[in-house]
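To start, an entry.
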Amino acid sequence: MISVAGIGADGWPGLPESSRQVVHAAEVLMGSARQLAMVPGGAAERVEWPSPLMAALPGLLERYQGKRVCVLASGDPMFFGIGGTLIRMLGPERVHVLPHPSSVSLACARLGWALQDTTVLSVVGRPAEVIRLEVNPGARFLVLSADGGSPARIAALLTSWGFGSARVRVLADLGGQEEQIFSCTASELDTDMPALNIVAVECGEGPAMARVPGLPDESYAHDGQLTKREVRAMTLAALGPVPGELLWDVGAGSGSIGIEWSRAHRSCQAIAIESHPERLTRIAANAAALGVPGLRVVAGRAPAALDGLPAPDAIFIGGGVTREGVLDACWSALRPGGRLVANAVTMESEAAVFAGYQRLGGELTRIAISRATPVGTFTGWKTMMPVTQWSVKK
């Protein structure tokens, strides 16, 4: 059994007696240098977390197997903490968690925000662009910082997105003797803060960005390889993103399908497969700008580039459907119950899609979009190239 004791910025004096007893009884005490320094000396062997931690953790646990191990964690170990990691590795029956109020609980108490109504994001080990999904007029949220530079990075992004007037409060060393709260607008915040901090953002006024599929085409940098807005919305509807699922975006172009799949829910994941070097860079930039910097980009041409990738729950073939072996490789890799969607705009790709439809079934839909455009001093309809969409469930 491994015990995990949450400890706050107030250190040992703020630790409840139940947690103190567990710490005293431990033969091995693990944690960061800061956490270990909070605990009075004792007989336990002290093990400071190595870096990177995740790679070393299995070996550490094996080395001290059979001993009474107590792991120190910041605040609530089950909130973006080591507690959840250990339970995933060892199972709940082998981990005993003693929580402490989290920084989020303390922040909500200071701000007067109802905890159940508060969105919480983390930039610990993640690019700061992950906050983009929550940035909209009137929105407010908390961000767990990675270090003292996180608040300034967050503020710079807010300003670049048109939210320079957003109210930003940095709550530092919550629960400790050095507790401080700094308040300013995003455009005013450009200095480092104490390392232990959480950021409260109230967006106020600024440009809105919808969360539903079908972002404006100008949201993307592209070289013409872009699934247009209306077709994109219909494609995402056919793919049907479900929280926790993985999409392959094959022949990703600008990455728009994988990006909007990932925007559907924080736990949705996508892999964009693309062979063009400039498009690879563009996909990554688009993903970061639209709040899903975790989108994975794979360089290569299907079907060879698909080897070794984790099995997908859904696949979109935006390019390469006419290439030999692509459709078969995608269908073979797709999980049972998964969805495959392919869009065709040329006669050759239509033929490939129709052959797939005859062999595997599914649905064929013809999408024809017309947009109003000026015709001299009048207005007329300009018809886009029709798209044949094939969708099939395995």
Remarks:
- The chain has three domains: 2-101, 104-202, 217-393.
- The mean pLDDT is 95.
- The chain is about 25% helix and 25% strand.
- The longest helix spans residues 347-360.
